[in-house]
Amino acid sequence: MAENKDFASPPGQTTPDLETVLTRLQARRVPAGIQTFFGAGLRVWVGDELHGVPATAIFATNQIARAVEWLLTEANRQYPE
Questions:
Q1: HSE, side-chain direction, 13 A CA sphere, residue 43
Q2: Range(s) of the domain holding residue 44
Q3: 12-24 pLDDT, tens per residue?
Q4: How far apart are CA 21 and CA 74, in angstroms?
Protein backbone atom coordinates (compact mmCIF):
# COMPACT_ATOMS: atom_id res chain seq x y z
CA MET A 1 0.00 0.00 0.00
CA ALA A 2 1.45 3.38 -1.00
CA GLU A 3 2.02 6.02 1.65
CA ASN A 4 -0.59 8.75 1.52
CA LYS A 5 1.48 11.93 1.47
CA ASP A 6 -1.06 14.13 3.22
CA PHE A 7 -1.57 11.62 6.07
CA ALA A 8 -5.30 11.38 5.43
CA SER A 9 -7.16 8.10 5.23
CA PRO A 10 -8.41 6.98 1.83
CA PRO A 11 -12.10 7.73 1.21
CA GLY A 12 -14.38 5.32 3.05
CA GLN A 13 -11.78 4.38 5.68
CA THR A 14 -11.69 5.49 9.28
CA THR A 15 -9.01 7.68 10.81
CA PRO A 16 -5.76 5.79 11.45
CA ASP A 17 -4.92 5.00 15.06
CA LEU A 18 -2.55 7.17 17.07
CA GLU A 19 0.43 4.88 16.57
CA THR A 20 0.01 4.95 12.79
CA VAL A 21 -0.34 8.73 12.72
CA LEU A 22 2.73 9.35 14.90
CA THR A 23 4.76 6.89 12.81
CA ARG A 24 3.74 8.69 9.62
CA LEU A 25 4.56 12.08 11.12
CA GLN A 26 7.97 10.85 12.25
CA ALA A 27 8.72 9.40 8.80
CA ARG A 28 7.92 12.81 7.29
CA ARG A 29 10.03 14.53 9.99
CA VAL A 30 7.05 16.48 11.24
CA PRO A 31 7.56 17.33 14.92
CA ALA A 32 4.45 16.52 16.91
CA GLY A 33 3.45 15.09 20.24
CA ILE A 34 0.81 14.18 22.73
CA GLN A 35 0.96 14.63 26.48
CA THR A 36 -1.42 13.38 29.14
CA PHE A 37 -2.50 15.50 32.08
CA PHE A 38 -3.97 13.57 34.98
CA GLY A 39 -7.56 14.65 35.36
CA ALA A 40 -7.27 17.29 32.63
CA GLY A 41 -7.07 15.39 29.34
CA LEU A 42 -4.58 15.45 26.50
CA ARG A 43 -2.36 18.21 25.12
CA VAL A 44 -1.57 17.66 21.44
CA TRP A 45 0.83 19.75 19.36
CA VAL A 46 2.53 20.12 16.00
CA GLY A 47 5.92 21.83 15.96
CA ASP A 48 8.90 21.86 18.30
CA GLU A 49 10.53 24.09 20.90
CA LEU A 50 13.44 25.02 18.61
CA HIS A 51 11.29 26.28 15.74
CA GLY A 52 8.18 27.15 17.70
CA VAL A 53 4.99 25.25 18.34
CA PRO A 54 2.60 26.74 15.79
CA ALA A 55 -0.39 24.65 16.84
CA THR A 56 -1.54 23.13 20.11
CA ALA A 57 -4.88 21.86 21.39
CA ILE A 58 -6.38 20.28 24.50
CA PHE A 59 -8.79 17.33 24.34
CA ALA A 60 -10.66 15.30 26.94
CA THR A 61 -9.07 11.94 27.70
CA ASN A 62 -11.92 10.14 25.93
CA GLN A 63 -11.38 12.16 22.71
CA ILE A 64 -8.29 10.39 21.35
CA ALA A 65 -9.90 9.90 17.92
CA ARG A 66 -10.65 13.61 17.74
CA ALA A 67 -7.07 14.41 18.77
CA VAL A 68 -5.77 12.16 15.99
CA GLU A 69 -7.96 13.97 13.44
CA TRP A 70 -6.60 17.28 14.72
CA LEU A 71 -3.00 16.03 14.35
CA LEU A 72 -3.70 15.01 10.75
CA THR A 73 -5.30 18.34 9.90
CA GLU A 74 -2.60 20.47 11.53
CA ALA A 75 0.26 18.43 10.06
CA ASN A 76 -1.21 19.01 6.60
CA ARG A 77 -1.68 22.71 7.28
CA GLN A 78 1.64 23.43 8.98
CA TYR A 79 3.88 21.07 6.97
CA PRO A 80 2.55 20.80 3.42
CA GLU A 81 4.67 18.93 0.91
A1: 10
A2: 32-78
A3: 657 788 899 999 9
A4: 12
